Amino acid sequence: MDQPKIERMLRLMTLMSGSVEYTVDELADKLDTSYRSIYRYIDTFKSCGFAVEKIHGNIYRLAKLSPRYPDLDKLVYFSEEEAYLVNHLIDRLDPTNALKAGLQRKLAAIYSSTSIADYIDKRSNAANVEALSRAVREKKPVRLVRYESGHSGQIRDRRVEPFGFTTNFIDVWAFDLEDGRNKIFKISRMEEVEVLEDEAWSREAEHERLGMDVFRMAGKEEFRVRLRLTMKAKNLLVEEYPLAERDLTADGDAWILDTGICAAMGVGRFVAGLAGEVEILDGEPLRAWLREYLQHFSKDFSL
Questions:
Q1: At a CB cut-off of 8 Å and minimum separation 6, what does 228 contact?
Q2: pLDDT tens readout for residues 95-131
């Protein structure tokens, strides 16, 4: 950003936080710029984390801190440990979460001179996606460092050949060189991705993308389910599995989910966790899975 623009933005911040209320047009006149530029500057303030209040009409002000709060420099500083923890928590949000990108953008803008910027740039899913993308382009295997497996419950390194991504880079399709199968690996569960520079794919002919349902379960066979959901169940479904929204239709005070399922486990866990909020209209494989699941569950907690 050039120096005149920086000076103009600093002057605008001063005017918007002073005792006089100016309209956008008045601010534009004082700064010798257009009203469109004023709105752009205001949007920049918002994206950097500043609280901008609309007083009335086209009058905007920067919100002030209460006198009981400490100085600004004490509010925005993060130690190295705090910086790592804050970004680690944000980074574990699902990539489809609308808040995630905004939070990291604001942190990067505000803390560009402190240690948190290093973690935003280097210790994030973005770095792993970049490494995986390069491995796909160059047809190289990778080591998934300390991958957290939801199925085995183990944390260990995995050697795989990545060959594609799912929607919004939530998961990566890869051939597991250890057990010779195509699998989906969640990018948020990878501590680091190490590209094996001196190696090349050896099992490319066996790479195959399986189907994947809205509950992020993969498989070759697909069956359909129809569920009637309460408003509560519908909201929880869309928040946890955003792609399910395209298969939802309103039905009075309820919602109908009609979708293809690759494996009963994903939808089964969702239904089991919302007993009384979801009715199965169609889907015998789902009913069979739930009967077995509930029978096993009742044994674990029998008195």
A1: 251, 254, 255, 256, 278, 279, 281
A2: 666 666 667 666 665 555 444 555 544 445 777 888 8
Instruction: Give me Rg for the CA atoms of the chain.
Output: 25
| Separation of alpha carbons 86 and 78, rounded Å | 9
Distance CA 38, CA 245 (A): 37
Task: Report the alpha-carbon distance of residue 37 to residue 259 in Å, rounded.
Answer: 47
| Extended beta strands in 29-128, E state | 52-56, 59-62
Per-chain mean pLDDT for the chain: 82
Query: Under the phi-then-psi rule, with left for phi > 0, alpha for psi from -120 to 50, and beta for the rest, what region is 275?
Result: beta
Q: Which of 39-48, 81-90, 147-156, 226-235 shows the highest mean pLDDT?
A: 226-235
β-pair type (171-176, 155-165): antiparallel
Give the integer Cα–Cα distance in Å for 239 and 228.
Answer: 17
**Residue 227 in this model has a pLDDT that exceeds 60:** yes
The tokens of 300 are what?
A: 């674990």
Q: With contact defined as beta carbons under 8 Å apart, do 191 and 146 qualify? A: yes
How many whole angstroms separate alpha carbon 211 and alpha carbon 206?
Answer: 16
> Among 146, 179, 188, which residue's Cα sits nearest to residue 160?
179
**Within 10 A of 36 (CB to CB), how many other CB atoms are there?**
10
Contact 201, 239 (CB under 8 A): no
Burial 143-160 (b: 16+ CB within 10 A, else e): bbeebeeeeeeeeeebbb
Structure tokens at 218: 């993969």
Residue written as token pair 């001179």: 113
Of 115, 119, 124, nearest to 76 by C-alpha is 115
Calpha distance 181→200 (Å, rounded) = 17
